[in-house]
Amino acid sequence: MTETRRAVRSYVLRQGRVTTAQQRAYDELLPRFGIAFQLAPLDLDRAFGRAAPRVLEIGFGMGETTAAIAAAHPETDYLGLEVHTPGVGSLLKRIGELGLTNVRIIQHDAVEVLSHMIAPGVLDGCHIFFPDPWPKKRHHKRRLVQPAFVALLASRLKPGGYVHCATDWEDYAQQMLEVLSAEPQLANTADGYAPRPAWRPLTKFEERGLNLGHGVWDLVFRRR
Asked: What's the predicted TM-score (pTM) here?
C-alpha cells in the first residue's frame, strides 16, 4: 500500500469550543454515524448498509454544506472527513435534525484515510470546499492540494469520478488549477475554472464574501 505519511500536515488541531448541543450530538450519534480510523480498506457497502454512489468530503468544517447536499441527494452516500471536534459535533447535530441516513464521518487525517481506508477506484466523487488557504508564503507547503496528494486522491476515484474544489483565495485557486491540470489521471471539465454547480449550496460565509466583492473559484476535474 502506498506510504504517504507526512512530516507537514495541512491543519493544526485547535481546542475549539464545543457547544452543549454539539457535545450531546457527538456523544449520542457518533457511535452510529462515526467510523474509527483503521489500517485496512473500509467496506463501504457495510458502512452504509447499501450499495450506492459514494462521495468523499475532505474537511467539512461545521458540516452545513455536507448536510444540505446529503439531504438533497438521498440516493448518494457521503463520507465526511474532519479533524476538529466542534465541526464533527455540528454535522452530527444536523444529521439528527434532518434524519439523514446517508452520511458517515471519520475524524482523522485525510491523507492517512485515503492511504489506508479507501481502496483504489471506489469513489464516485470528492469535495474539497474552502480548505485552509495557509495564506503566508512560508506556510504554502501546508496546503492540502499538492501533487502527491492529488495523485493519491485520483487513484481512489472510479473512471469518470470527479474531484470538485472551491476556494476564495485566488492564489490558492491558481495553485489548485496548476496541480490538478498536471495530474495525468485527471482531465479538466472546463476551460480553466468551472462555474459553481447549482448543487453546491452557498454558505453564509461565502455569500457574505460575494456581497463584499470577493471572488470564489470552483474547479471540477474527472478521472480519465
From this structure: 0.91
161 contacts 223 by C-beta, under 8 angstroms: yes
Among 107, 149, 112, residue whose Cα is nearest residue 128: 149
**CA–CA separation, 72 and 209 (whole Å):** 24
Whether the predicted pLDDT of 37 surpasses 70: yes
Angle subtended at Cα 28 by Cα 22 and Cα 33, rounded to the nearest 5 degrees: 95
The whole-angstrom distance between residue 74's C-alpha and the CA centroid of its chain comes to 18
**Catalytic residue positions, numbered:** 132
- Alpha carbon dihedral 203, 204, 208, 209, in 10-degree steps, equals -30
List helix spans (H) across the chain. 20-33, 44-48, 64-72, 85-98, 110-116, 147-156, 170-182, 204-211
The 8-class DSSP code of residue 60 comes to -
d(CA 196, CA 216) in angstroms, rounded, equals 9
Average pLDDT over residues 198-209: 85
- 3-class DSSP assignment, residue 79: strand
The cell for 87 is 465541526
Q: Above 70 in pLDDT, residue 13?
A: no
pLDDT digits (tens, 9 = 90+) for 83-116: 999 999 999 999 999 999 999 999 999 999 999 9
Between CA 129 and CA 87 the distance in angstroms is 14
Q: Which residues pair with 219 in a beta bridge?
A: 165
- Report the candidate in 60, 101, 100, 65 with the shortest Cα–Cα distance to residue 84: 60
